[in-house]
Design goal:
Layout: E1 6-7, H1 17-28, H2 45-62, E2 68-73, H3 76-88, E3 94-99, H4 102-111, E4 116-122, E5 146-149, E6 151-152, E7 157-158, E8 171-174, E9 191-195, E10 206-211, H5 212-215, H6 229-234, H7 244-259, H8 262-283, E11 288-289, E12 300-304, H9 308-320, E13 323-324, E14 335-338, H10 345-362
Parallel strand pairs: 1-13, 3-4, 3-5, 5-8, 8-9
Antiparallel strand pairs: 2-10, 6-7, 9-10, 11-12, 12-14
Length: 363
């Protein structure tokens, strides 16, 4: 669609055009019902089918075993920051957290309301420009769980593999910004959560994948119903009225990924897209990446120019050419190209070409 620009926004982010086109039709009349998807009851038969298809496609996409629940919840990752420890961290217990940026910091702060937090590894010493290695990770003796943020949108880092976990502990992951961007072994985790607005859909719904046995454990404290995973699992994610439209879009995105080769093919595409930009950074004297090479994110490419003045000039020039959303996070500055699943390879090529041309003029 020629009127659309290349959207490098870190989120809410680019969605597949095929999904947007289908949604445009279904907003008016979904499934021949004569009613748009926004108007259907969340307990009606049509929404039953939307939920069932979305869950089935999610399971198929990530080979999610039957002993895991797939939940569609409210509140984004920010709610999961406190909902996770509220459910699973006893007052006298300890949870291990891997501190790799702003979002893990927020998760740590919320967990400290409920029990002890042990920072098992941190890259704060170098402005979160790398992912700590296994040798740099020191777990506590008996953690209730181990938490990581798999991809860090602000810092531009990403875990290449899961960290090791002590016997008896389980892994919890905030995968908001790289969920389903590559193959994932769900069985390595007890709980995975992800706000939808990066790779899965619009803001307003959070995907939670949780192992069934965790829900069968005795409660560590009394909680309101809306904060209990067990309640949401028992009510099929409809304890209260859910964001049906966001879940509908998520389901359409699952179908889009499946139709485009699944997670293995999406992972290959994402590596190829990121390489286009990183290759320019590695060869440039004008632009410089901010992340150690072995920790680079395939979702968020962060970089700087030689001066803030040149950065502002580059961002302005990029916007004139239809490359928008490149300004870095306000807390760190610089520039950031967010290239989630639906971002087209041609957009990466256009950015790379502009970077080369800009360097030739201002180098």
């Amino acid at each position: 669609m020629s009127e659309r620009v290349y959207n490098f926004s870190p989120g809410p982010a680019v969605l597949p055009e095929e999904v947007l086109e289908q949604a445009r039709e279904d907003l008016w009349n979904i499934g021949g019902s004569g009613i748009g998807v926004l108007e259907h009851s969340h307990r009606g038969k049509l929404v039953d089918s939307v939920f069932a298809e979305a869950k089935a496609d999610c399971r198929k996409l990530a080979a999610i075993p039957s002993e895991y629940y797939v939940l569609f919840l409210h509140g984004g990752a920010s709610t999961q920051f406190f909902m996770l420890p509220a459910n699973f961290l006893p007052k006298d217990g300890t949870a291990d957290y891997l501190h790799t940026g702003s979002w893990s910091k927020k998760a740590i702060q919320e967990a400290e309301r409920y029990g002890r937090v042990h920072v098992a590894a941190s890259s704060e010493d170098a402005n979160f420009s790398y992912i700590p290695t296994g040798e740099q990770t020191v777990c506590s003796d008996a953690p209730a769980y181990v938490h990581l943020t798999s991809n860090n949108t602000i810092a531009g880092t990403q875990f290449a593999t899961e960290p090791r976990v002590l016997d008896g502990a389980w892994l919890a992951c905030d995968a908001s910004s790289d969920i389903f961007s590559r193959p994932i072994d769900v069985q390595k985790y007890g709980l995975i959560y992800a706000g939808a607005q990066k790779n899965l859909g619009p803001a307003g719904v959070t995907l939670v994948i949780i192992r069934e046995d965790l829900l069968s454990r005795p409660a560590v404290r009394e909680l309101p119903a809306m904060l209990r995973y067990r309640e949401h699992a028992d009510q099929d994610s409809r304890y209260n009225t859910p964001n049906v439209f966001a879940i509908y879009i998520m389901g359409r995105v699952f179908k889009w990924i499946l139709a485009n080769g699944g997670l293995a093919e999406i992972g290959r595409r994402n590596r190829a897209k990121a390489k286009i930009i990183y290759d320019v950074l590695d060869a440039s004297s004008q632009f410089k990446g901010t992340v150690r090479a072995d920790s680079r994110s395939q979702m968020n490419v962060t970089f700087r120019a030689r001066s803030e003045e040149l950065e502002s000039l580059f961002i302005a020039e990029a916007e004139k050419q239809g490359l928008v959303g490149l300004k870095g996070h306000r807390s760190v500055g610089g520039m950031r190209a967010s290239i989630y699943n639906a971002f087209p390879e041609k957009g990466c090529e256009a950015l790379a070409q502009l970077m080369r041309e800009f360097e030739a003029r201002h180098g």
